[in-house]
Amino acid sequence: MDFAPTPEHEQIREAAYRFGQSEILPGLRERDRAGESDPATLEKMGASGFLGVSVPEKFGGMGADYISLGIVCEEMERADTSARVVLSVHNGLHCMTLMQWGTPEQQERWLPDLAAGRRFGGFGLTEPGAGSDAINLKTTARKDGDHYVLNGSKTWISLADYAHQFLVVTRLAETSAKAPFAAFIVDRTTPGFSSRPLHGKLGVRAGNTGEIFFEDMRVPADCMLGEEGDGFKVAMSALDHGRYTVASGAVGIIQACLDACIPYANDREVGGEPIGKKQLVQQMIASMVRGREVGRLLYFKVGWMKNQGLRHTKECSMAKWVNCEAAFDAANKAVEIHGAYGFSDEFPVERYFRNSRGAVIYEGTHEIHTLLQAEYELGYRSDKPVAKTLPGWPFR
Ligand code: CAA
Questions:
Q1: CB within 8 Å of 33: residues ≥ 6 apart
Q2: Closest by CA position to 218, among listed 179, 172, 187, 181
Q3: How far is the CA of 257 from the centre of ligand 1 (A)?
Q4: In terms of Cα–Cα distance, which of 192, 271, 185 is closest to 231?
Q5: Share of the chain above pLDDT 70, in %
Q6: For the chain, is the Cβ count within 10 Å smaller at the N or the C terminus?
Q7: Could you give the C-alpha distances from 56 to 7, 95, 99, 111, in angstroms and in order?
Q8: Would the pLDDT of 285 be above 90?
Q9: 314: pLDDT confidence band, cut at 50, 70 and 90?
Q10: Which of 180, 186, 172, 253 lies closest to 214 in space, CA to CA?
Q11: Cβ contacts of residue 193 below 8 Å, gap of 6+?
């Protein structure tokens, strides 16, 4: 077991931190207040190589290991959750699922443009009536010659207005497959596709979220990932990648809380001494430090398992569950330490409080991960080998 970060890990952490400071933070408060996302941020992330972090070099990606992707997520979310969400959706849910399930021809078709940031990828699983209960999704795909015709809608879709293509999970209208699901990569320029932004979110206000709709949308059969019947497995394995980015990003929120609280606690005085000298404040700081350290160990372990090509659904669920709750707890404490200033966007901690709440819900709620961990421990659930595995690292 080697806990030392490699020079590559340190370099990429520094690069992602600098990107967050110079490209994400300027103007963020105004965008967050206005609920406006900035597509230029996406383009800059692409130009800097961050949209291809763990995509093999043969497809034009950075070829970095999966721990590096976690580190980038951590540093991006240290700046703002909206930036990490881009990585979750594009790098995690979209590109890595394509690396796991795509044929060599499909990978060659899509990955180079995605890794270079010439195209952005999205993900559509959740529907108005199917969130945690994903298996009850209603969007249909009906085979018609060498195409499938899609009808339905997906909601809470990050990058709904910006992604050029989406990985969409559907229910097959007619199939002999045991599990009636299929996943497709769909292009937003296909007739029958439309999108609509969602407004009024509690957090991640500088990020684009919306709904996407399919109305008799004809998708070529060669855009299917896996085969008929694989769709739900494709969706669940995508979540192994998305949850990893959420778990690592959550550590960035905890670090951001410390970044804000340490100078504040050293500066703000009560009774003639800095509040950092008060034990009740120290207790909150220590709790944040605990969340950060445990969080890193949990996501490094999952990143390591990805590097080895091992299935990691159980470990990833644990990392996502623990880290997102620790991040929300840290943000709540950061508001507390800032007192009334924590209730205003003059300081960033109220944004961390709002942003961290969402991740306790998306990519598997607190309740879903609680049930999963209990089922694993009780012997009701186990992780079987999957037909297609994410390539381990180093990439061949
Ligand atoms: N990789 C590959 N295959 C997997 C898998 C994985 N990670 N997980 C499950 N499978 C396979 C299983 O082996 C099983 O295959 P067999 O039928 O051959 O045995 C099949 O998929 C069905 O799996 P389960 O039996 O585990 O299915 P389930 O119905 O028990 O799943 C659940 C229940 C785990 C709770 C699942 O419904 C779930 O995770 N729900 C939460 C959904 C979720 O997280 N949604 C978030 C959407 S994305 C998002 O949030 C982004 C956003 O921005 C909103």
A1: 205, 345
A2: 187
A3: 32
A4: 185
A5: 100
A6: N
A7: 19, 11, 9, 9
A8: yes
A9: very high
A10: 186
A11: 186, 187, 212, 213, 214, 217
CA of 390 to the centre of ligand 1 (A): 16
| Domain 239-378 fold | Butyryl-CoA Dehydrogenase, subunit A; domain 3 (1.20.140)
What atom in ligand 1 is closest to the CA of residue 243?
A: 44
**Residue 387 pLDDT level (bands cut at 50, 70, 90):** confident
Choosing from 91, 100, 233, 302 the residue with most ligand 1 atoms within 8 A of its CB, the one to mutate for a pocket test is 233
Centre of ligand 1 from the C-alpha of residue 135, in Å: 8
At the second CATH level, the architecture of 123-231 is Beta Barrel (2.40)
User: Is 363 part of the annotated catalytic residue set?
Assistant: yes
Q: Please identify which of the residues 77, 363, 375, 377 carries the catalytic annotation.
A: 363
CATH node for 7-120: 1.10.540.10
Burial of 381 (0-12, 13-18, 19+ CB in 10 A): middle
Distance 154 CA to ligand 1 centre (A): 17
Neighbours of 150 (CB within 10 A): 25
Identify the residue whose tokens are 């390539």: 391
CB contact at 8 A, 203 and 357: yes
Helices (H), 309-392: 313-338, 349-359, 366-378
User: Over 80: is that where the pLDDT of 208 sits?
Assistant: yes
Q: Which amino acid does the sequence have at 184? A: F
Residues 6+ apart with CB under 8 A from 114: 51, 52, 55, 90, 94, 95, 98, 120, 121
